[in-house]
Amino acid sequence: MTDPMLTENYHNDTAPKRHIPQHITFWDETLRDGEQMPGVHFSAEEKLAIAEKLAEVGVEVINAGIPVVSQEEAQTVHRIAHAGIKAHILAAGRTVPGDVEAIINSGATHAAIFVAASEVHLRYKLRMTQDEVVQATVNSVRRAAEAGLSVAFVTEDTTRAPLDFVERLYLSALEAGASRLVVSDTVGVMTPLTFRWFLREFSARVHPKDWSVHCHNDFGMATANTLAALEEGVNAPHVCVNGLGERAGNTSLEEVVMSLESLYGIKTGIKTHELYALSQLVEKYSGIPLPPNKALVGYNAFSHEAGIHTHGVLRNSLTYEPLQPEILGRQRRFILGKHTGRAAIQEKLKENGAHATDEQINHLVDLVKRKGEQAGKDVNQELLKTYKSQFEQPGLKDSEFWDLAAQAGIERGKQA
Ligand code: MN
Q: Fewer beta carbons within 10 angstroms: which end of the chain, N or C?
């Protein structure tokens, strides 16, 4: 039988033309944007271990962090840059002289220099004119390029910025020595179609050779938008393991890789069978639990309980699974519970060499279903309570903040 993914429905020729590059470079942001997720803080050792695993999996560019953030961050970036990791180690910073010097001093070979591009960011955050932004960009990019770094120029909020300004800014960055251009959908407002239009426009005006997109998942479209960008010829998508990142997170590495491999039939060069181990490592070090229903790496991504589904999968896994879990280094699970049917029970008995009559099996199915329905929710409720107390208010508790304020000699006044 043909693989259902290879049917005509799937590969029809009325789909818009794709311009996916021959080679896709994965640029991972887990250690930078991922760490900016509320409550996430990696130790130097954890960052190093994640960077090593990313390189082992086949990620080519690793953003190690923003050295100017703190002394500790600068030391960590320096350590990662000198650890002999087989990937390009990149450090990031604003179009500010101190940031650029910190990048140069970190020993990273690659730099990402960023500034905002949209009117709302210029007016309210940077309080800079377009001319000032261009000038700061040219100075910073030139300084980093002259220091021998491979420079990527990034704008924040590119997708809400006026295209004429975007054109002028990126052309200035190219002229100053930037070798890669990064377009950011910082607040995740693109849809696949609007993003393709935006990037086509960007490409016609700026003619980028090496370009990236940085997508956010505010509307749940980070992966879809990133794939749309690759269809427009973007060759180095920004990704985060498990989709970590600010607010609703960034594009998830595993989703883009597996979409390319399984849905587009593209060899990414990523060791996909290591993806689950990487995901588990990042879950452990970030302390951010994977949602059970997270695509590909969530606990339920290859679990089946419903009788109809289990029956189908036992006959042929393609009935209810679009890809084999082993491709990701995972295993399929059959869950016994309220929705269990005969097939799962028969299979389990057979696996364990147990013989049973039809009547016995029917009886057992009833018992399993009833047990599933009666199963206490205590453990789940307890877990949920702990989870909520942690994630509804991550970071320092209010009392901890005021203790620190007291240490700084600040007293709480009368509340207005
Ligand atoms: Mn971001």
A: C
